Amino acid sequence: MQAEPARPADRVPAISPDSTRLRTFSTSRPPGLRCVGQIDLSTHDAWETALAELPGTPDIHLELSELTFIDTHGTLILVEATHQAAQGRRVVLHNPPETLVRILELFWPSLPTIEVDRP
Known about the structure:
Helix content is 27%, strand content 34%. It is α/β, with parallel strands linked by helices. It has one domain (4-117): Transcription Regulator spoIIAA (2-Layer Sandwich). The protein has a 6-stranded mixed sheet with strand order 1-2-3-4-5-6. α1 runs parallel beside α2 (72-84). The termini are close together.
């Protein structure tokens, strides 16, 4: 899946003390986020903020091919965000790092709200 960037005015960089660590950009086709960098202790707040601002569409797409790392707590934040927005919604993870897939399989093996899309 190739995420199409939103118009420049719609791009929303994550707020982080070190913006080179995690950057998120809104995408319009498909609706969701493109994530660049790492999700760890220093970027959890920015990650949580970015997920809270996802559009209210039935399917949300996260392009994660440029995400180099995500820790277990960052994955928990994702899972909690999908539960809060569940109501028939699904989050599709495109090209997630293997670490994220393994954490999901280990701690949340049958999550109906998250779908992993790998090439």
